[in-house]
Amino acid sequence: MNQSPEHQLFPTASAPVPLFHVLHHQNHQGATLSVIANLTLEAAVIASACVAVVYTLNGGLYSVAYTDVIQLVAIFVGLVSLKGQ
């Protein structure tokens, strides 16, 4: 396995980076849900995380991949419809 020099020098320093990335996105999803559902930020982040965990556990990573494909199609349709305006 060919690893970057940074990862070879500091393997434990880069380990928490994906965790912070996920937490960052959960915070944003929770903030959106808190505005839509009129919840506190803490309750919305917990609810959002629970939905994500249950969805992934029930459907596996295939469900996440299929959701990404559906979102990509929706984005493409939206961009094409905006271009026509």
Number of helix segments? Answer: 3
State the secondary-structure class: mainly alpha
The proportion of residues forming helix, as a percent range, comes to over 70%
- Low-pLDDT sequence parts: none
Question: What this model shows, in words?
Answer:
The structure is a single chain. This protein is mainly alpha-helical. It has three helices and no strands. The chain has one domain. The radius of gyration is 18 Å and the shape is extended. The N and C termini lie far apart (49 Å).
Main traits of this protein?
85 residues, mainly alpha, 3 helices, 81% helix
Question: What's the layout of helices and strands?
Answer:
Layout: H1 5-9, H2 17-37, H3 41-83
Short characterization:
The chain is an all-alpha fold and 85 residues long.
